[in-house]
Amino acid sequence: MLLLCRAVGQQVASLPGNAVVSFIKISAKPLRTGLTTWASKWVYLFTHYLQDKVVNSISELYSFMDSADATLARKVLGEGGEEQHEGQPATEEATDEAVAADNK
């Protein structure tokens, strides 16, 4: 898309500025300037869109990496040399629930 708009801009810029039809001289400079400006605006607009898309994608990637790091930083059951024995609760919450049940 960028190459197409730039190519159109270059083609328009290379066109002659004046044309003579029979006895009338026509100046195409305003039309040529307008078309060149139009092509430049589309190049800018598309470039800006692509830049925003890349920035948003990278931002989402960093957000995902932060959440993944937090998830991966959690201790896994049995990690760190602690082993779960039969009849032993698997988590602190389970331990608290077992103590509460024994106190009833």
Mean pLDDT: 79
Order of helices and strands: HEEHH
Structural class of the helices, strands and pairings? mainly alpha
Q: What strand order characterises the main sheet?
A: 1-2
The share of residues in helices is: 55-70%
Overall 3D form:
rod-shaped
Task: Indicate the low-confidence ranges by residue numbers.
Answer: none
The helix count comes to 3
What is the radius of gyration?
34 Å
Task: Give the tally of β-strands.
Answer: 2
Instruction: Bin the strand percentage.
Output: 5-15%
Largest sheet: 2 strands, antiparallel
Q: State the end-to-end CA separation.
A: 73 Å
Task: Summarize the entry for a quick read.
The chain is mainly alpha-helical.
Features:
104 residues, mainly alpha
Provide structural commentary.
This protein has about 100 residues and is mainly alpha-helical. The chain contains 3 helices and 2 strands. It has helices at about 1-15, 30-70, 90-104, and strands at about 20, 25. It has a two-stranded antiparallel sheet. A hairpin with a 2-residue loop joins strand 1 (about 20) and strand 2. The longest helix has about 45 residues, at about 30-70. It is rod-shaped and about 100 Å long. The N and C termini lie far apart (about 75 Å). The model has no long low-confidence stretch (mean pLDDT about 80).
